[in-house]
Amino acid sequence: MNPPPKPASSQTSLFQVYLRLRPPITKEEAANVQRGERYLNVEPVVAAESQDESLQDSHPKHITLQPPNDSRKRAVEKFAFTRVFEEESKQLEVFESTGMASLIDGVLREGRDGLVATLGVTGSGKSHTILGSKSQRGMTQMSLDVLFRSLSSTIRSADNFEDPSLLPSLSATDPSEAQIFSARNFIDSIYGDPSERSRASRAQTPMSRAQTPMLDSFQTPVIPRRHLNQRLAALPGTPDVSHLTKLVDPDSEHVVLVSMYEVYNDRIFDLLSPSLVPGPGGVMTRQGGNSQRDRRRPLLFKSTEASPDRKVVAGLRKVVCSSYEEAMMVLETGLNERRIAGTGSNNVSSRSHGFFCLEVKKKVKSRRYGEVTWAGNTLTVVDLAGSERARNAKTAGATLAEAGKINESLMYLGQCLQMQSYFQDGNKTVVPYRQCKLTELLFSNSFPSSHLTSHNRHPQKAIMIVTADPLGDFNATSQILRYSALAREVTVPRIPSVTSTILSSSSISSQSRPQTSNGRTTPYSASTEDLEEAAREIVRITDDCEVLILKLAEEEIARQEAELKLKAFEEKFTLIEQEIREECWAEMEERMEEERKRWQTAWDQQIGRNEEHLDKKLELVSRDIKIYEDPEPTPDERVDELERENEYLYSKIAALERQINAQSPTHKPKAGSTIHDTSELSLLSNESSDLENAFQKIGTFKLADQYHHSTGSTKLTPKAAKVTPTAASAKKPRRVTARKRDLGPEEDL
Ligand SMILES: Nc1ncnc2c1ncn2[C@@H]1O[C@H](COP(=O)(O)OP(=O)(O)OP(=O)(O)O)[C@@H](O)[C@H]1O
Q1: DSSP string of 20-40?
Q2: SS3 of 654, please?
Q3: Could you tell me which residues belong to the region Disordered (predicted)?
């Protein structure tokens, strides 16, 4: 085999990649190891490697993957990692040797985000590494311990009522539009008395599972407060990490915000938001299989107003924790919400990618205005869902669909990890991390920001711990290792030599040849020389064949790399196109705005000119025009006018009488008789009732006119009501004239 591949430079790689091998768990597995059935072997540290100055530690970094002895002839693969942890490695060793302490240091003192994630086939030990077991703490718990120990003298609690402005000031300066809770409120609503909880502000908080690491049951009922202390005592206290405590400025003030979310089917869900519904008797229950999907709103990973240069998960719930115990309670709550299902490969398989975030914020007081802001960095711990083969996992329906999404997102992650070698070689090819939510969340913070306001922000430090079971599924493990390894080398196995087989058969001693019954050996149909010549020919062809197989394997790798590059370029072109479109759009909007302003100015000027013109015209007109008003008539004139009208009405009445008499011969009035009062009209026949009504209306109009329009003591009194039409109409001659017209021509009546 050729010299082992060198791991990529650790200074420029986006992720440090470690491999951890899972020990056998069952007796059967242990027996298989004894029989040498493992296909994954750790390469011993070679002298040349340990002499290398940059790699002076004597830990293994390479493994070989020996394909199983099936009918297919597959190449032996060799992979390189930053370091390989063998089966016997303990949690503390992994914590210390992966540089978790330096990741925490970056968050506390260097202004650098940190990220640790586990990647592996389902059941290979990811959750064990990240979350630990009932007796051993995982990376998360140890990180929390180191962090809270380091901040013990400077940390602030949101439950400290001396400063009620803490939560509002945290909320105001949080760039992710988060809802921020104090730990006490949050934990009370979960572990408090149910009756108290229902009164609490956060009434519908989800319950938690009973035991750390919370991977055993979903149906745990509401947990009363009296169990809280027992639960805290049950948390594993080992390994001890007190020796890793960091020093921070004792005059500073810090807060720690804990948030949790999961990526499920390429959507982000808050794990600290309730997904439970109140059931009968006030007990919180799950609605069934995928009820969470219905209740929880997917969150966006986006740039916000306060964070224009980097994307954040917007709208999360965040809990201010001031101690290890508080943070553990929040962690348990979130884990309880996470989707976990039993599959054929693992009884408690994670069906989503879980993110646990610890934001350490430092108080910053503006010297000029005394304003308080909180800024800091985040340590993110990621427990990725395991890749699996549907056949092995025996999944179906929704779980199978989940597996498809999990495998797809892991494939994208693998592509990004492979591309990081190009990135670190100075190649500007973009790592194609925008292909899914998972890679966006893991990589978007890995690059130096080009935004003007964020020149101080460093790219994150990231660690990937790849877990593998040396007795597990060969194909799935090989795929994960291919994705994640820092370097890979393929060696084509030598096919057992046909020549040697033939030659050995040709050189079979005559004693071993079958003999006939008469003692003679069976003759060969070809001579030994012919056979040797044929064997040599076969050797030559076999060698050619091996070279071709090797070339094919290399071509295959080159093709995969070319495909990845193509994808990356496509992504880059899409980005460039998007940028150009945005630029064009911005330019067009700017021009439109300019044009709009120009038109607005011209329009305003035109309106001003028009108004000026109109004013001038009005001035001219008002200068030359005098308004003539009719003089008020004197009382005598009005009396004359009314009398004239009276006469006119009487003559009209007379005309009407005549008309009635002419139409009704049986009721002829006496000759020469006249009607002097409207009341006399009632004596007329039924046929004249219309006329009578007309007279009454005339009288009413006049009275009404007098009531509404007379001046001085014009209030309508009973006496005034008896005023004759003549007297009433004297007050309003013009109106009466108008009514005269209303009555219409005489002949119509
Ligand atoms: N280093 C280890 N030492 C002891 N036991 C381990 C170790 N790694 C894993 N295990 C055990 O193996 C089993 C499966 O591990 P775990 O649940 O961590 O797998 P996983 O990769 O997280 O699976 P999934 O992706 O399905 O969630 C568990 O019972 C765990 O306790």
Answers
A1: EEPPP-SHHHHHHHHTT---E
A2: helix
A3: 50-71, 506-529, 709-749
Cβ partners under 8 Å of residue 384, min gap 6:
117, 118, 119, 120, 126, 350, 353, 410, 413, 438
Supply the pLDDT for residue 465: 94
In this prediction, residues 145-163 reach a mean pLDDT of 82
Q: Supply φ then ψ for residue 639, to 5 degrees.
A: -60, -45
The C-alpha atoms of residue 595 and residue 591 are separated, in whole angstroms, by 6
Give the pLDDT confidence score for residue 480 in this predicted structure: 85
DSSP 333: H
Report how far ligand 1's centroid is from the alpha carbon of 130 (Å).
10
- Where are the extended beta strands (E) located within 301-440? 301-304, 307-313, 317-321, 340-341, 349-350, 353-365, 372-383
pLDDT at residue 73 greater than cutoff 80:
no
CA-130 nearest atom, ligand 1: 18
Find out whether the beta carbon of 120 lies less than 6 Å from any atom of ligand 1: yes
- CB of 128 closer than 6 angstroms to any ligand 1 atom: yes
Give the atom of ligand 1 at the shortest distance from the alpha carbon of 124: 21
C-beta 22 within 6 A of ligand 1: yes
Residue 213 Cβ contacting ligand 1 at under 6 Å? no
Ligand 1: centre distance to CA 418 (Å): 26
Our separate counts of H helices and E strands in the chain read 23, 20
Least confident of 332-341, 564-573, 628-637: 332-341
**What is the distance in A from the centroid of ligand 1 to the CA of 680?**
119
* Strand ranges, E, within 35-113: 40-42, 62-65, 76-80, 83-85
Residue 638 DSSP symbol: H
Q: Would the pLDDT of 66 be above 80?
A: yes
| 732 annotated as belonging to a binding site for a ligand | no
Consult the annotation and say whether 288 binds a ligand: no
For residue 143 and ligand 1, the question of a CB distance below 6 A is answered with no
